[in-house]
Amino acid sequence: MGKLTKLHRSQNSRMIAGVMGGIAEYVGWSPTWVRLLFVIISTLSAAVPGILIYIVLWIVMPKASPQSYR
Fold first, then answer.
1. What is the number of domains present in the chain?
2. Has residue 39 been placed in a domain?
3. Distance from C-alpha of 4 to C-alpha of 7, rounded to nearest angstrom
């Protein structure tokens, strides 16, 4: 499709809810690299569990629609 104009959950690059795919489309990176970076940061961070951040993003980020893409 194209680049997301606003931060949304991806319709195209989703494994669970499309959160990391949406972030990747928004910044123009590969979804694989965004997922890998998220796992690494989550593993190294003892303060806030990565799964909690993912669930919050899942709830807060709206699902992308065809109008979300340029």
1. 1
2. yes
3. 7
**Amino acid letter for position 59:** I
Q: Note the helical H segments in 1-70.
A: 19-27, 31-44, 50-60
pTM of the prediction? 0.77
6-42 per-position pLDDT tens digit? 788 888 888 888 899 999 988 889 999 999 999 998 8
- Domain extent for 53: 19-68
Residue 28 lies in a domain: yes
Sorting pLDDT into bands at 50, 70 and 90, what band is 70? low
In a domain, 13, yes or no: no
